[in-house]
Design goal:
The chain is an alpha+beta fold and 176 residues long. It contains 6 helices and 5 strands; from the N terminus they run αβαβαβαββαα. Strands 2-3-1-4-5 form a 5-stranded antiparallel β-sheet. The longest helix is centred in the last third of the chain and has 44 residues.
């Protein structure tokens, strides 16, 4: 079924808007998936704040050109679906990687991360990065450790003096 020129222009505008608002875009081959599997996948991705839609390859290429982005031509072979991360790109990558692992049909092809093309392997390794909250906790812990060490070093002489005075007080009580 042919799509009218107006409909194509609307799709390109939609793709451009999604590309401009997203941190990451993942392209997947969905060939062979049933409607039920696709619906289940969409629900999983929705919980991870990922928009998922089947795209027209040529229209997506045009949208990428309008945004000044490019992807290798091999990513555009066969039917494509696009997962657009609205929130955390790592969570989106994990959800897609896990879905591809459980489905025999879904295959991650690559995508865009912060405007740069990534391969399927890079997208899968992005899924191995800890969540943002864990990374922030590690940074805070790294900043806190030297400060806590300094406090302990500065408290050492005072603590020693307190122990000596307490021992002397105990010794005087014992004599009395």
């Amino acid at each position: 079924m042919a799509i009218s020129r107006e409909k194509k222009e609307n799709l390109i505008e939609t793709y451009v808007e999604l590309l401009s608002r997203s941190q990451a875009v993942f392209l997947v081959d969905y060939r062979g998936m049933s409607v039920a599997e696709m619906t289940r996948l969409r629900r999983q991705l929705e919980q991870a704040e990922v928009s998922f839609m089947v795209v027209k390859n040529t229209l997506l290429k045009r949208a990428l050109e309008q945004r000044g982005l490019s992807l290798p031509d091999k990513m555009f072979e066969g039917p494509l679906a696009m997962g657009v991360a609205k929130g955390d790109a790592v969570v989106a990558a994990k959800t897609l990687r896990d879905a591809a692992a459980t489905s025999q049909f879904l295959q991650l092809k690559g995508g865009l991360l912060a405007g740069r093309a990534i391969t399927a392997d890079q997208a899968k390794s992005l899924a191995d990065v800890p969540p943002r909250e864990v990374l922030l906790a590690r940074v805070v812990g790294g900043l806190q450790a030297p400060i806590a060490g300094l406090v302990n070093v500065l408290n050492g002489p005072i603590r020693g003096l307190v122990y000596v005075l307490q021992a002397r007080a105990d010794q005087l009580k014992a004599e009395a």
